[in-house]
Amino acid sequence: MENQATHRIWLTACLLALMHIKGVCGWRLPLRRSSTATLDYRFLMSAAAEAHAENERNDRVTRNKLVVILAGPTAVGKSDVAAKLCAQLRGIIVSADSVQAYRGVQIGANKPDKAEMEQTPHLLVDVADHMENYNAAGWRRDAMYCIQRLVDPNTDSSGIVDEIDIHDPHFRRNRGFEIEEAIQRGLRVKQYRRESSVLPVVVGGTMMYLQWLVHGRPDALRPTDDALRTAAEIMGRFEIVDDWEGAAQYVRNFGEAFSHQASKLCGQDWYRLRRILEVALTVQESSDATLVDKPYSGEREGSLKSLGYDVRCFFLCPDDRMKHTAVIDKRCEQMVQRGLLKETADLQLARRLPDMAAKAICYRQALDYLERSDAKDEDEIAFQEFLDMFTTATRRYAKKQMQWFRKDSEFVFVPVAVSIDQTARIDSTTETISHMISMSRESFDAMRESQNSVSALTRMENEMQGKQMKFYQTKRHVLKQDSVELALALREADHCTNRIHATNSTSM
Questions:
Q1: Which helix (H) or strand (E) covers residue 269, if one does?
Q2: Following DSSP, what letter does each residue of 356-375 receive, concatenated?
Q3: pTM score of the predicted model
Q4: pLDDT for res 279
Q5: How many CB atoms lie within 10 A of CB 3?
Q6: Where in the sequence is the domain holding 234, given as residue range(s)?
Q7: Is residue 438 part of a domain?
Q8: What's 301-312 look like in SS3?
Q9: C-alpha to C-alpha distance for 404 and 393, rounded to whole angstroms
């Protein structure tokens, strides 16, 4: 792409020089189509316009420090839209997915395959080992590194990130080198000049990651080691029996500040509830009276905007939640068909299933099914119950994502036409976002804040459609009753279950 642009600029320069000679000397340029040596005027002018537009885009990324954020519920097509944007705007994807960050997981993480990675490089995929606790703070640090290196490649990499906590036992100093290698590999794959700016397109559905990146670090206290251990033990006892109300009440008992934080959670967010408990326990241990009075200030530090970036945040919102939910169900079945249970069994038996993944939707339901105490072969009832639990949990998470981002005014809601052909849907959504990226900052903000904009109406319609979701009826799309696909999936499920139980009985 870079060589083509340089070639076109050179041809344009030649044409302009010839035009200047024509004007001075009165020469007539032989622009007949029949001559093999003829310069096609229209081609050169279009090439010049394209090269000029590309240079303008590159300059704008550098000058305004442009960053694009793409969020959305699962199965809405975020990755496809991001890939098309990158192809059009000279970008590279930065993954904002808490499970994709771990090595080893693939199907359950909906991780891009090798061909997709070659077509559109992804950063922050496969950056954490299964033993690591890769959290929002660590991801934000790494994402900021990627963003700054892409936007301003001439920045001294040794001084890019000044927020590394050397006391964090989970921080690996060599991760920065791994990420830098991934950046350089992505530039080579796309044939981008290393000295030119690249548009960071941050894509994912992990809400906490995106909140930390867009709005900055929260003001909560750093928990003590004792608080971390105690909170994990307490929450573990509640979570193993699925007693969410009991766990929430336990946290609320620590005081109004913690009760308020717990009330803001979307759905049964065990991770965030444990984080609140960690702060509560840290305050309880402290002798500082000011911490007891006000453990949270409500302020954040280090937002992208405060660091000088022109960040454009978009939430891809399905225009029909009922049809989108059916897409979610079908996708879950396809993941099982592609080998989700085998992948889970392999990772569990090798003791390489990350703790974060084991608690995540799909792997958690798969483990519960594989490790059930009353397992028997050809148990279609248990298999169907597993599918129901998997699809229900995924639908609930999509609902939580919509609720979360409806409250975030920084995100522009972009309607995604679920009913139309996939290619047309991706093209239409990409065109809409590309147009809004090209707007001036003032125009973009005015549109984002308008109560009559498409974004505001889409946000409102999405909330209203939620009332109809109670009428949604689950049905099988791939693993249908008496189908060959179901029989094959059930056979593999039995095999994986027997492997798990055989290993467990041997180790007892």
A1: none
A2: HHHTSTTHHHHHHHHT-TT-
A3: 0.79
A4: 87
A5: 8
A6: 225-296
A7: no
A8: ECCCCCCCCEEE
A9: 16
